[in-house]
Design a protein that fits this description.
heterodimer; A: alpha+beta; OB fold (Dihydrolipoamide Acetyltransferase, E2P); five-stranded mixed β-sheet; 4 helices; globular; B: alpha+beta; Four Helix Bundle (Hemerythrin (Met), subunit A); Alpha-Beta Plaits; 5 domains; six-stranded mixed β-sheet; five-stranded antiparallel β-sheet; 21 helices
Chain lengths: 169, 703
């Protein structure tokens, strides 16, 4: 079981010690705070025709066109109507072609979590059905468990995960 | 006082590279045998500037190398040396070497010393070795001239009338320096003429009013005098006359050095009263020449690596906008100092203004990067002219859409591929005149080079009316080169595309024009790197066309805003033929599904945008309620059904791919006046999308 270990080490190297945490329903998630470009309130996006369900559209972020993804739909959770707490976190996503900015819609932003590296645990194997590819580790924050997301894997348009699935198959 | 010269190096290099471009284009424009004064002057001046600059900055290698070129050019300019194709070739190669030297110096790289020396030797060989021939020519010319002139007359001095134009001082030239330099050449007597001096009240301290009558005695070459006046010849009236011994009338003779300069030195015509005086200032000529040099300069700038030449008007617009922005900013900060709620409206206004100005500013900055494609096209007339005479073909080049604005990066990268394609058309496409006549075509072949904004792309077309692609030959070659199997079942179109395969060339004889087989695959790769694609069309016996489509990452586009339900899209104006409202009886159904309508004598398929894009609840569900925008893409027409048309506007195209990915039927996005995003339709892509989804099966059936 070296692979999860390696994953965590890679995560530790690439990620800082502070995470922006947000909520989706009852669950807490965190992303590397250094990847966060902007947090903005939800506003209607321009729909992109024939795009996957979780792509909410594109918005204008200081002159560049940024796609917005619904985090719930991306993670396969039930859809919930947007309200005044709904926010968009604009993240810097890296792939082999460079960096891109993408926004994710989350229920609400909760906090900034400073955590010790030794408090991050491996992602346990949940078995089939639950995608753990996007989760780089679990952070133990007092009474809560926060799932740390690997934004690169999550937001690279499924291409990467698809190819990984192919590899696995 | 010490000045850090290094800060000027960049400027020097930029100017020098531009100078080299001027030299290159000038040399290419020179018809061997005849010397166009203006052409050679501009080449000479460019060389002279490079020499001067490199000397100033201590780049002595460059300076000494350029000096040799300059000497050669100078002799050509004076007509002391005929302009031969060989000499032009050597000069062109020298330009290349010089460019390498400059590049190496500016990048602190290594200069290929050996090549420089070789080229130097070649230049010197022309200067010395061949000058023997030339000298005999000159001697012969003299010999024929002498019997008429009598004994050889060497001027004992020169009479120079030097009248600076009023603006000369402003060009940074000092007449006194010139006179001092003249005085160094020999015994100089000068008479100043102060008659033009105005009254003190109307005296402009920056104008020059004085003129001089100079008598220079001594054994002085006219060249030496010319050199001194070289920098000011456009800024003064200058008459240089030889003073001949024994009081011979000044005007009645031709000096020995001037003889070869006369147009027909071998024709011993008695020159009764020809004006041997050379009036070197022609104001009318000067203005046109300056304009030309300016144009050249601009086109030269296109190949400059890190810098860009921008129209003053664009800069002015930018400055204006920054000014507005500053005003808005100070207004807002004043408002913020003691803000009360009743001023909320003003705050909102201010913020809206700020937003607008910022956006305008951003758009203008983007405009700065846009250049007309004529920067690239301008090199083709010469290329076609040169190659057609070399190949013995008669070819006319037509260019359209030179003003299409293209991003600077595209301009820089599209040049070489285009040269390659045009060469291919010349070499392989257009037939020899006899063949053309035999095929019942006009003797002169035509190559059309056009650029346009079309369907969300920049489309560059190279179309010739030559023989078209030879399908069988390509097929044979591809099999021979094992690119395809013998029992392939490729369509004609797929066979044509094989010319883009690596290592493919069909030229029977590998010429130096094209046919080395390193061409088309590289062309395609370059175009693909720009995010574009390349297509080929061929009609055997009638001609072929290469169509390059480039994305408009930064381009500005004229768009028509259309709405469907609550969504807004931009249709590129160039794709729109017309917009109409149809009546029920104009609409036909094919196989109960595909809708078509009859526009004049054509049946056009109808694409319902809301169906194609999955838009819910369009306002217009029946065709009579909405509008049909008749659009054209990839040569096909169709009616695009939308709810309504809004205004037309120029939009800045933003890439969807930068942060997202390519979307079928969409070429990009733009930001509307209210800050929201609207997607720009890619009409050809939309048509493809429609055929894929079978929505326009009707189109196929009617076609």
């Amino acid at each position: 079981m070296n692979e999860p270990q390696a994953k965590i080490e890679a995560a530790l190297e690439s990620q800082g010690d502070e995470y922006l945490t947000f909520r989706l329903g009852e669950e807490d998630y965190g992303v590397d705070i250094l990847r966060v470009q902007e947090i903005r309130g939800w506003e209607a996006a321009t729909r992109i025709p024939n795009s996957p369900e979780y792509v909410k559209g594109v918005v204008n972020m200081r002159g560049s066109i940024v796609p917005i993804f619904d985090m719930r739909q991306r993670l396969g959770m039930e859809v919930r109507p947007y309200n005044k707490n709904t926010v968009v976190i604009v993240l810097r996503v890296k792939n082999d072609r460079g960096e891109r900015n993408m926004g994710v819609v989350v229920d609400e932003v909760s906090d900034v979590l400073s955590t010790q590296r030794d408090r991050i645990r491996n992602t346990p194997e949940f078995g089939g059905g639950i995608a753990t590819d996007y989760i780089s580790g679990l952070a133990d924050a007092d009474d809560k468990m926060i799932m740390l997301l690997d934004v690169d894997k999550l937001l690279n348009q499924g291409q990467q995960t698809e190819s990984e699935n192919e590899d696995a198959a | 006082m010490s000045i850090d010269m290094a800060q000027f190096h960049q400027v020097f290099f930029e100017e020098s590279f531009e100078g080299l471009d001027i030299m290159e284009s000038g040399l290419l424009n020179m018809d061997p045998g005849t010397v166009d004064d203006e052409e050679i002057n501009s080449i000479f001046r460019a060389a002279h500037s490079i020499k001067g600059g490199s000397g100033t900055f201590g780049f002595n290698d460059i300076s000494s190398f350029t000096h040799i070129m300059e000497t050669l050019l100078d002799e050509m300019r004076d007509g002391r040396r005929p302009v031969t194709p060989e000499a032009v070739d050597v000069l062109l190669r020298s330009v290349d070497v010089l460019r390498d030297m400059l590049a190496a110096t500016s990048d602190d790289g290594e200069v290929d010393e050996e090549r420089v020396q070789e080229q130097k030797a070649e230049l010197e060989q022309i200067l010395n070795g061949k000058s023997g021939e030339v000298a005999t020519d000159v001697a012969a010319a003299d010999a024929t001239a002498q019997p008429v002139e009598g004994a050889e007359i060497k001027p004992i001095g020169w009479h120079i009338v030097f009248r600076p134009l009023p603006h000369m001082l402003r060009t940074g030239n000092d007449p006194l320096r010139i006179i001092r330099e003249l005085a160094e050449l020999g015994d100089l007597k000068s008479e100043g003429d102060i008659s033009a001096l105005p009254a003190l009240s109307s005296y402009e301290p920056e104008d020059s009013y004085l003129s001089w009558d100079l008598h220079l005695h001594g054994d002085v070459e006219k060249q030496a005098i010319d050199d001194i006046f070289d920098w000011v010849e456009d800024d003064c009236e200058l008459i240089i006359m030889p003073i001949l011994p024994e009081g011979e009338p000044e005007v009645a003779t031709v000096s020995a050095t001037a003889a070869p300069a006369a147009s027909e030195p071998e024709a011993p015509v008695v020159q009764a009263a020809p004006p041997p005086v050379e009036r070197r200032s022609k104001k009318d000529r000067r203005s046109s020449k300056d304009r030309r040099t300016n144009n050249r300069r601009q086109s030269g700038g296109s190949s400059g690596g890190g810098s860009i030449r921008v129209e003053i008007s664009k800069i002015d617009a930018l400055i204006n906008m920054v000014g507005e922005l500053v005003i808005t900013q100070s207004m807002l900060s004043m408002l913020g100092e003691d803000f009360e709620m009743d001023r909320l409206e003003r705050l909102n206004d201010g913020l809206a203004q700020l937003e607008r100005h910022t956006r305008e500013l951003q758009e203008s900055v983007m405009q700065v990067r846009m250049l007309p494609i004529s920067f690239t096209f301008s090199r083709f007339p010469r290329l076609v002219h040169d190659l057609s005479s070399k190949l013995g073909k008669k070819i006319e080049l037509k260019m359209t859409g030179e003003n299409t604005e293209v991003d600077k990066t595209v301009i820089e990268k599209i040049g070489d591929p285009l040269v390659h394609l045009v060469r291919n058309s010349l070499d392989h496409g257009i037939e020899m005149p006899e063949e053309r006549l035999a095929a019942g075509k006009p003797e002169t072949g035509t190559i059309n080079l056009s650029a346009s904004h079309k369907g969300g792309n920049i489309v560059i077309e190279i179309r010739d009316d030559g023989q078209g692609l030879n399908r069988d030959k390509i097929e044979e070659k591809a099999i021979e080169k094992e690119i395809i199997d013998e029992d392939h079942n490729l369509t004609d179109q797929q066979i044509y595309e094989l010319i883009f395969a690596a290592g493919f060339s069909t030229a029977d004889v590998v010429s130096d024009v094209s046919g080395r087989g390193v061409g088309m695959d590289v062309v395609r790769r370059n175009i693909n790197e720009l995010g574009g694609n390349i297509e080929i069309e061929s009609d055997p016996g009638k001609g072929s066309a290469i169509i390059i489509r480039l994305p408009l990452t930064l381009a500005i586009l004229d768009g028509q805003t259309v709405t469907v339900a609550d969504e807004t899209y931009i249709v590129p104006l160039v794709s729109i033929i017309e917009s109409i409202q149809v009546k029920a009886d104009q609409i036909n159904r094919v196989a109960g599904k595909g809708e078509t309508f009859k526009l004049r004598d054509e049946f056009l398929p109808i694409l319902r945008l809301h169906k194609l894009f999955g838009i819910e609840n369009p306002n217009a569900s029946s065709l009579e309620e909405g509008l049909l925008v008749v659009v054209e893409g990839d040569g096909r027409h169709c009616g695009l059904f939308v709810d309504d048309l809004l205004g037309q506007q120029q939009v800045v195209i933003k890439s969807l791919e930068a942060n997202y990915q390519r979307v079928d039927g969409i070429s990009g996005a733009t930001i509307l006046g209210d800050g929201s995003v609207a997607l720009i339709l890619d009409i050809p892509g939309l048509l493809r999308l429609a055929s894929e989804t079978g929505a326009d099966s009707a189109a196929k059936q009617t076609a």
